[in-house]
Design goal:
Length: 160
């Protein structure tokens, strides 16, 4: 009987270890996919391409800017970015680094990313000083691709 319990305990341990390894590998692949989507968003942003930026968002995504402007849906997000890239963001450059990725489910992740934004024009045509802030994002998995479903950006009170 003792050998049977030991065999069962060993089998359960191996199953749990295998499940943990699979979960870890899935999270690692998912983190890589999320970071790739964020990198694609930044690349499109820095090329001032509203269509390519919007392609990184889910069809029903919500985006809230630092000014509190809200866009709902990929088409509205594209229109907003296209307008900004033709105006105050025409010379803008943004960097973003994911600081934390927390999986709420295997298909939903909460992401915090630090950003730096430079080259933004002011209303009088001059250049604003660089700004630092945080992006709070919800990513959802759509097939093999992670897309931004909720986007909130906030600038820190003091500039660089």
């Amino acid at each position: 009987m003792h050998k049977t319990h030991l065999a069962i305990a060993l089998a359960l341990s191996l199953i749990a270890f295998g499940a943990a390894r699979t979960s870890w590998a899935q999270n690692e692949a998912s983190e890589a996919g999320i970071k790739q989507t964020l990198a694609d968003y930044i690349d499109a942003y820095n090329h001032h391409d509203g269509t390519a930026v919007a392609a990184e968002f889910a069809d029903d995504a919500d985006r809230t800017t630092v000014r509190g402007d809200v866009s709902h849906g990929r088409a509205a997000i594209e229109k907003s970015y296209t307008g900004l890239f033709n105006g105050t963001l025409k010379n803008a450059h943004r960097t973003a680094t994911a600081k934390s990725i927390r999986f709420l489910t295997p298909e939903i992740a909460l992401v915090d990313a630090d950003f730096v934004l430079s080259g933004r024009s002011s209303n009088n045509g001059g250049e604003q000083p660089p700004a630092k802030g945080i992006l709070s994002l919800i990513f959802t998995k759509h097939g093999d691709k992670w897309l931004i479903t909720a986007f909130h950006e906030q600038e820190f009170a003091s500039a660089m």
